[in-house]
Design brief:
With 317 residues, the protein is α/β, with parallel strands linked by helices. The chain has two domains: 216 residues, Spore Coat Polysaccharide Biosynthesis Protein SpsA, Chain A (Alpha-Beta Complex); 71 residues. The chain binds uridine-5'-diphosphate and magnesium ion. Magnesium ion binds next to loops.
């Protein structure tokens, strides 16, 4: 058996936005899981769950508060206003104290029974454990297909992603401390975590229906999040403008010869035509190309301002 002082403590982080309908059940299930793992000597007794109230407008905070008084596993933070899922999650991760951190949504879509499997993988020496959905049948047809296309697009753009993994994951203290070095404002967690490196693995779980309440990710927020994923990792869209500018310039170059030929060697040219058409092609191409070049520099500045760490030392002897 593992000696007592080596049994890790776990902090579970749960961002909550208007989740009064599910919260009592979530609290009950998560505390039961923690209790069981403490009994099994897989976790030490300082393990707990941090609920981060992301500026809810319903009774979410009151529920967290009242459970915190009666249930020693429950702790809570209340953000001063709604800052979005990723930021609420970060607030919890930055303030939680455990040796192991697991992030999970409040709506019980992510199966809490995978928590034990994640802790087991940590015990085997993995610093990061991804929760991966084995099936997406509970998602709508639309969400499933758009999500799949999106993951493929990101992969094409060179963003390292774990397929069918959202924000249900385990991070060791070591991995979390590395994550904190990424100081950028809009942190796309599921893209950054694979960049950390470290030994990682995944655990499969079945994605359920939302236990109660409605999705807090309407289409508009989802699209913004999707754009964030592309623009924080890749300047492929800017490259595309440069490429387009180059093609248009090339095309303009040949068009100019053609216009001149028509003008000089045939009688079809309307007076004034060549002097209008040539600049249109020429300026169009040059403008797009210049825009792309400027864009390339902006992309460089953008990447620099993120001041991402250049390396991570995993071990030292
Ligand atoms: N959430 C949050 N702040 C927000 C929106 C969502 O903290 O502004 C939380 C929400 O309470 C839930 C998690 O993020 O715990 C995921 O949201 P949801 O389940 O609504 O997203 P979906 O599963 O529909 O993509
Ligand atoms: Mg959900």
């Amino acid at each position: 058996m593992t000696p007592i002082n080596e049994i890790p403590s776990l902090s579970i982080v749960v961002p909550c936005y208007n989740e009064e309908e599910v919260l009592p059940e979530t609290i009950q299930r998560i505390s039961a899981t923690i209790e069981l793992l403490i009994e099994k000597n897989k976790l030490n007794s300082s393990s707990c769950v941090f609920f981060v109230d992301d500026g809810s407008r319903d009774h979410t905070w009151e529920i967290i508060e009242s459970h915190a008084q009666s249930n020693s596993f429950v702790k809570g933070y209340k953000l001063s206003r709604n800052r979005g899922h990723q930021n609420a999650l970060l607030a919890g991760l930055h303030n939680a104290k455990g040796d192991i951190l697991i992030s999970i949504d409040a709506d019980l879509q992510d199966d809490t029974s995978a928590i034990e499997a994640m802790v087991d993988e940590y015990a085997k020496g993995h610093e990061v454990v991804y929760g991966v959905r084995s099936k997406r049948e509970t998602d709508t047809f639309f969400k499933r297909y758009t999500a799949e296309a999106y993951y493929k697009l990101l992969a094409k753009l060179g963003v390292e992603l774990v397929f069918n993994h959202a924000d249900y994951r385990l991070l060791s203290r070591k991995a979390l401390e590395e994550l904190k070095r990424y100081s950028e404002v809009n942190l796309f967690l599921r893209g950054i975590v694979p960049q950390l490196g470290f030994s990682s693995t995944s655990v499969e779980y079945e994605r359920h229906e939302r236990f109660a309440g409605e999705s807090k990710y309407p289409l508009k927020k989802m699209l913004a999040f999707a754009v964030e994923g592309v623009t924080s990792f890749s300047h492929a869209p800017l490259r595309f403008i440069t490429g387009l500018g180059f093609l248009v310039s090339l095309f303009a170059f040949f068009m100019i010869f053609w216009v001149l030929a028509v003008k000089l060697f045939s009688d079809n040219a309307v007076p004034g035509w060549a002097s209008i058409v040539i600049p249109v092609f020429f300026i169009g191409g040059v403008q797009l190309l210049s825009l792309g070049v400027v864009g390339e520099y902006i992309a460089k500045i953008y990447m620099e301002t993120k001041s991402r760490p250049l390396y991570t030392i995993e071990k030292e002897v």
